[in-house]
Amino acid sequence: MDKEKQQQQFSLHENSKNEGLEFFRVSHGEKLLTTNQAVGVSNTDDSLKAGVRGPTLMEDFHFREKLTHFDHERIPERVVHARGFGVHGYFQAYESMNEFTKAKFLQDPTVKTPVFVRFSTVVGSRGSADTVRDVRGFATKFYTEDGNYDLVANNIPVFFIQDAIKFPDVVHAIKPEPHNEIPQASAAHDTFWDFVVNTPETAHMIMWLLSDRAIPRSFRMMEGFGVNTFRFINDQGKARFVKFHWKPLLGIHSLVWDEAQKLAGKDPDYHRRDLWEAINMGEYPEYELGVQMLEEEEEFSFDFDILDPTKIWPEEIIPVRRIGKMTLNGNVDNFFAETEQVAFHPGHVVPGIDFSNDPLLQGRLFSYLDTQLIRLGGPNFHEIPINRPVAPIHNNQRDGYHRMTIDRGSVSYSPNTLQGNAPLPTPENGYVHYTEKVEGQKIRQRSDSFMDHYKQATLFWNSMSNAEKQHIIEAFHFEVGSVMDKGIKQRVVDMFNNVDGQLAIQIAAGVGATPPSAPGGTGVTTSSPALSQENTVMNPRTRKVAILLENGFNYQDISQVMEALKANGLQAEIVSKNLGILTGIEGQQLEVGKNYLTTASIKYDAVYIPGGQQSIKTLMLQGDALHFINEAFKHAKTIGATNEGVDLLLNSAIQGVAMAGTDTQDQLITEMGVVTIRNVTDINTFSQEFINLISQHRHWIRQNKKQMIPA
Q: Which residues are in coiled coils (predicted)?
């Protein structure tokens, strides 16, 4: 296939939708109503009856079809990853990876490969909230020239268990308890922590789960990890071990726990709304695809087993090579048809990508397909438009539930002579499994190389900043503090004493358990900078700023700041007591975006208060406005004020922060993420400092001065 034809067949339309789905996309506006058999419908408000007050007749095929379809509109919910949100996009390689893999979508930088990505939480039901503390799914379907490839990833690089046979156990333990179906979308209960203390291999994953990684700021600001070990295979048949990474270009950022809990109540759709709005505004999320690669002869060169899914490959030892970029630029047209019916499977690979003996991966290769068969009604789920490859399908599989293909001809078997043995196997271009030599006795036993459960958990703890460590401790206090069984609480303390002695002491202090009698730890003193979010990219684009305003505002202040925010890709929204139009000192008018009933500080990354004496006097009388500021300060967000706006900050509960006084002239004062300036008309210097502070995400120095944080 020449490059021009390949580009035409496998690239995206401008709207980013997989072109193979266009036949199935239908707009119903200004169309005549029909049945599913395309028969016109004369009346859809009244069933066919024997007389106007008589019984409904069975021959009313429209009534029966309409009700039957409604009765079956819901398909079984996913056991895990039930709450998800999907978007379309494309992937482009940076350079040919032919030296390492023959996967065609990783060869030509000019080719755009369509993708569909589904982000999700793991534990909660479809009706749960987006911002719960949980692992996030990050599954990508590549519609490649060689067929579909699914990279089924999480936002945490390790997992709870080492062998897939324990997957039902960890899911049963973390799901709502069966006797009362409580709690929803939470690990803060007895059965989960009972499983943890009886399964020490969970230690590393628990450290990640209780870190800020489990409450991301948005899907656009979290990493993705393939978790399992795969193989790259090149044209010469040479294999290398590989792990996959998605690196967001906006950096890796998180919520704080109090904020995540409040968002779950005020806006349970926070993450999906954030992604939907970003794409609609043209702020397309971008992620670089990275790979860690190991030569086969290096398999046993480390103090961890590279096939152990509870272990990372430290990036300082095995660097991540960034090989391409994914851009997400198309929202779905129909949530059910696309997001809910999409089926991912780690066994959906293309030539050039193969498996390893990772025991968790080996089980996933069975489980995902088995799940799709029951969720999507049989073996033909690949014919649902969102799952259908853009490459043609030819095989002898026939019939079954929901078959959509109309197969012509009498031959449906191989080998055959009636059809020239077609469809023909293709040894040259077909998938060939890597010829790994395998031998050994049949045995139910784990490798000794999988038995170290604590060293990498210590490495993770050592790698955290002081603020991140404090968040982990507080997460233990909430999660384990919610456990009713005192024996389990004590066993958690004793278990994590194996990770770090001081960590165990601080856990015990918050959950009412006895500190360990002897100091613990693993002796690991090293750290990995890649594990801390403090070392991430600080890109302020798409951050949201709330501007608190009332009538009598200083238009010159607000216009300069809004112009600077827009120029740097930030979004500003005016928040006031009432919706409608506000009028400035000199008569300029601005429209309110949200009032205090329809929004809260937890939905913004920063707060700005412009000058205007009348506006500030009104705001000082509003408890909601003062609470908005106090809460933003508590959550370590950037706060800025100009001219009379500083007075509102001085009347809030913020304490111990230096601010511009009434006698200062053109003096910019910045302390602990609060920036103020007075008695100026040109506030460009303020604007740039305000944006610089927002780009730092949070100002954790406040966390170390709790006495000044408003309740």
A: none
Q: What is the pLDDT of residues 107-162, one digit of tens each?
A: 999 999 999 999 999 999 999 999 999 999 999 999 999 999 999 999 999 999 99
Q: What is the pLDDT of residues 599-632, one digit of tens each?
A: 999 999 999 999 999 999 999 999 999 999 999 9
Determine the distance from the C-alpha atom of residue 324 to the mean position of all C-alpha atoms in its chain, rounded to a whole number: 19
Closest-CA residue to 84 (of 265, 282, 219): 219
- Token pair 């490959």: residue: 313
Query: pLDDT for 341-361, tens place per residue?
Result: 999 999 999 999 999 999 999
Identify the residue whose tokens are 């948005």: 218
Domains of the chain: 84-387 (2.40.180.10), 463-534 (1.20.1370.20), 540-708 (3.40.50.880)
Confidence band (pLDDT; 50, 70, 90) for 336?
Answer: very high
User: In the predicted model, is pLDDT for residue 186 greater than 90?
Assistant: yes
Tell me, yes or no, if 15 is annotated catalytic: no
Contact assessment for residue 321 and residue 244, using Cβ atoms and an 8 Å cutoff: no
N- to C-terminal Cα distance for the chain?
Answer: 65
This prediction has a pTM of: 0.93
> Alpha-carbon distance 311 to 641, whole Å?
46
Helix (H) or strand (E) holding 169: helix 167-174
Cβ atoms within 10 Å, residue 119: 28
Between CA 616 and CA 632 the distance in angstroms is 18
Specify whether 81 is catalytic.
Answer: yes
Report the 10 Å Cβ neighbour count for 64: 14
Catalytic residue among 18, 62, 148, 154: 154
Q: Residue 113 and residue 247: Cα distance in Å, rounded?
A: 18
> Binding site, residues?
78, 118, 167, 364, 368, 375
Query: Is the CB of residue 228 less than 8 Å from the CB of residue 346?
Result: yes
- Give the C-alpha separation, 605 to 547, whole Å: 11
Q: Which residues pair with 641 in a beta bridge?
A: 609, 676
Which residues participate in the annotated binding site for heme? 78, 118, 167, 364, 368, 375
The enclosing H or E element of 151 equals: strand 147-154
Active-site position among 18, 62, 81, 497: 81
- Helix, strand, or coil (residue 23): helix
